[in-house]
């Protein structure tokens, strides 16, 4: 059991690092891609805004298909959104706008799940060596979780803490129960999360994982806190084989223990049989001593013989009597 606990603790730490590393690497990829987006437009454009507009009109679909870029925005130095691709995309997340306003010439990155979960990065771009604006790229967070699922086999859910500090998606009494903004393979994940019940809500106050027994399977849920401000991740691992291994090892240990006890008892009986038989014979002839029939007693004891090794009290009595 201790080995299982240690193994799962290491696995949880490893998966938490994998999630954070994956998001960090995707952010770095987005930073490199931001400098390439203008190159998709005409080189003779009159301004960076025009170059970006034509780049997105001609190759916006390529950004989505090849690099999983779901939306692009171009923010001018005065804070206005000059380009939004696609046009139906939602506005900038509330977490990103203040960072751009405060430091427009610095890179900013956030993870936002209002309304949908995405990874955003804001990159300042230059035009003729002068700051021309900020390019904001959005990448779906769901694709990152699916990539991690393919790598580790774990199911993941993203939860958001609302402005009041509540997590309604974890509370069975709330109408939004289990309506996570991102959830890998809901047909597999939702029954497990539902079986965990209110224990999910208690994980905010305890780092201990939750173990769920569902049908014939054992599953473990643990929380990655602070994936981003107000954003937590919940990871579901199938530990059925490990639990079955523990049960098999426990049964084996019990069987070995029971067999060991039985074997010890049998060995003890075998060892004790000769002394017990001799004691029984002594008990039969001792009444002769009470009747003062010493010759008969001496004759009966002489039939015992003397065991040279080991030499016990019965042998001493026989030697003395004979």
Q: Roughly what fraction of the amino acids lie in strands? A: 15-25%
Uncertain stretches of 5 or more adjacent residues: none
Largest sheet: 5 strands, antiparallel
Q: Given the structure, what is the number of helices? A: 9
Helix residue percentage: 40-55%
Global morphology = rod-shaped
N- to C-terminal distance: 63 Å
**How large, in whole angstroms, is the Cα Rg?**
39 Å
Mean pLDDT: 86
* Spatial ordering of strands, largest sheet: 2-1-5-4-3
Question: Secondary-structure element order, as H and E?
Answer: HHEEHEEEHEEHHEEEHHH
Task: Provide the structure class.
Answer: alpha+beta
**How many distinct beta strands?**
10
How would you describe what is shown here?
It is a single chain. This protein has about 325 residues and is α+β, with helices and mostly antiparallel strands. About 50% of the residues lie in helices and about 20% in strands. It contains nine helices and ten strands. It is rod-shaped and about 135 Å long.
What is this entry, summarized?
With 322 residues, the chain is of the alpha+beta class. It is built from nine helices and ten strands.
Topology, pairings included?
Elements: H1 2-36, H2 48-67, E1 69-75, E2 81-85, H3 97-102, E3 108-112, E4 118-127, E5 130-140, H4 141-152, E6 155-160, E7 182-183, H5 186-196, H6 199-202, E8 210-214, E9 217-228, E10 231-238, H7 240-290, H8 294-302, H9 313-321
Antiparallel strand pairs: 1-2, 1-5, 3-4, 4-5, 6-7, 6-10, 8-9, 9-10
Helix pairs in contact: 1-4, 7-8
